[in-house]
Amino acid sequence: MERSIEPETETPEQFAARVLPGFSNILLLSRALTHRSYLNEHSDAIEDNERLEFLGDAVLDFIVGAWLYDRFPEMPEGDLTKMRSALVHTEQLANLAREIGIGRAMRLGRGELQAGGKERLGLLCDTFEAVIGALYIDKGIEGVIKFISPILETTAEDVLANHKDEDPKSKLQEWAQGTGLQAPQYATRNSFGPDHSKLFEVYVYIDGKINGSGIGQSKHAATKQAALDALKKLGLANPETRK
After folding, report:
1. Cα–Cα distance between 179 and 62 in angstroms, integer?
2. Alpha-carbon distance 227 to 210, whole Å?
3. What's the pLDDT tens digit per position in 165-213?
4. What are the catalytic residues?
5. Where are the domains of the chain?
6. Is residue 26 within 8 Å of 13, Cβ to Cβ?
7. Does the model's pTM come out above 0.90?
C-alpha cells in the first residue's frame, strides 16, 4: 500500500474542514492565518493576524484558567498559576500548532517562507493564538471550549507526568538564596544554525562559577535547560527529569 503524502500547503477552507469543521467565516480564518510578511507582498490581502493574535491570547488565558479551576478543584492557587503558564507558553502552543498542522495553512511572504517561517516557534504560537481569536468571534466562547478542552486534557496530563509545570529557574534561585549565595546569572554564550531553526546556548553562573548549560530553540528555552542542568548537578531535580 502506498503511503499517502500530506500536502505542504492548504487553503483556509481546507484547514477549516480538517481542523475546525463548521467554521463559517472563512475570510476571518484567512486573516488569522495571514502573517504581515504576506500582507506586504499581496495587495489583495486586507489585514494580518496580529489583532486576532492579541484577542486569542486573552481568550486562551481565560479559558485555560477556568478549565484548570474546574479540572483540579483541590489545586492551590500558586500551582494553578504554574500549570496555566506551562500550558500557554510559546513552546507549548507551538507544539499544539504543529499537531494540528497549522504550518501548512499559514500565509507567509516569500522571504519568511524561505527562512523556514512555518517551523518558527514564535510564528506557530502567534498563528495558533490568532486562530483561537477567530474561533472565538465565529463560534463564541463555547466554540473555543469545545475545541480546546480535549487538547488541554491530554496536554495537562503530560505536564503533570513530566513536571513541566515546575520552573527550574525559580527552584535554582530559591536554592541559591537559601544557601546564602548570589542569585543565578544567565548568559547567552553562542547561537548557531539557520535562521529558521536557530539554536541558543546559555550558561548559568552562581558566584561567578558555571553551574550548568542548556541549548534551546529560544533563549527562554535554553535558559530553562541551563537551570535544569544545574539542578541535576546539584541533585535537586526530580527523578523523572534526570535523563
Report:
1. 38
2. 11
3. 567 887 888 888 888 888 899 999 988 876 666 788 999 998 888 888 9
4. 57, 129
5. 12-161, 168-241
6. yes
7. no
**Exposed (0-12), middle (13-18) or buried (19+): which is 74, by Cβ within 10 Å?**
exposed
Which CATH number is 12-161's, of 3.40.50.460, 1.10.3720.10, 1.10.1520.10, 3.60.40.10?
A: 1.10.1520.10
Grid cell locating 80: 494553578
Written as one string, the DSSP assignment of 9-48 is ---HHHHHHHHSTT---HHHHHHHTB-HHHHHH-TT----
Cross-strand pairs, 212: 204
CA distance 138 to 105: 18
**pLDDT tens digits for 142-166?**
999 999 999 999 999 887 776 665 6
List, in sequence order, the alpha helices (H) in the chain: 12-19, 26-32, 36-41, 50-71, 77-88, 90-99, 110-114, 121-161, 168-178, 219-234
Nearest alpha carbon to residue 209 among 225, 224, 187, 192: 187
Fold of 168-241: Double Stranded RNA Binding Domain (3.30.160)
